[in-house]
């Protein structure tokens, strides 16, 4: 699993860590725009669009965020403007209160700290931890009458797209860093129900990272097979289909 639920979560190799530190902001900007270079991981440039991705934290750490994020999530468009998507294994089994920090960097919350409310997990996950059901949504409480989407915007959650038709940009928060990383590459099918993408450096903490295509649509969520990947260099996502679409509809209706 690419979160902190298990101590065996893969960490950065020395190669991947040095690669990240050596890359220029120009490379990161290119990856964030979804135009490449393909298969290169770099720290994410802070932009209005990248602020839609954030980290999950235990609520008890809301005043001391540094070093306590455990998964990644992102804001998706919904009628009530209050919805995030992540991996089911990031929320399933947790009974503690959580918060979401969009655009989190270096212990700071530039767009506020948002309380995680009702959680929506598919039946395939709640009944059998089916890796083909490893996607989840959560509703965030408003702050001052505003929803999180009013503050940072949201990408559209789209199901039924053809895997590999376009490249995707994956953005997530490795446990080893206090800022997000991004990588753009073209995904491929691992099986009928799972897709994979080759991007170095996506280790523990990156579960739930959105896969965003060139149209600004979330077409994958890092998770699924092997909890998202047994190594930091290959990541997986459920092929988003009917179950994910139904789950989104249920979550989007929640006020």
Describe the structure.
The protein is of the alpha+beta class and 255 residues long. It has 2 domains: 14-47 and 156-240, Thrombin, subunit H, CATH 2.40.10.10; 50-154 and 244-253, Trypsin-like serine proteases (Thrombin, subunit H, Beta Barrel), CATH 2.40.10. Helix content is 17%, strand content 27%. A 6-stranded mixed sheet has the order 1-10-9-13-14-8. Strands 2-3-4-7-6-5 form a 6-stranded antiparallel barrel. Strand 3 (71-76) and strand 4 (83-86) form a beta hairpin. The two termini are 31 Å apart.
Query: How helix-rich are the residues, as a percent range?
Result: 10-25%
Q: Widest sheet: strand order?
A: 1-10-9-13-14-8
The CATH topology annotation of the largest domain reads as Thrombin, subunit H
CATH architecture of the largest domain: Beta Barrel
Question: How many beta-strand elements?
Answer: 15
Low-confidence segments: 5-34
| Classification by helices and strands | alpha+beta
Judging from the principal axes of the Cα atoms, what is the shape? Answer: globular
CATH superfamily of the largest domain: Trypsin-like serine proteases
Can you write the helix and strand succession as a string?
A: HHEEEEHEEHEHEEEEEEEEH
Task: Report the span from N to C terminus.
Answer: 31 Å
Number of helices: 6
**Radius of gyration, whole Å:** 16 Å
Mean pLDDT: 89
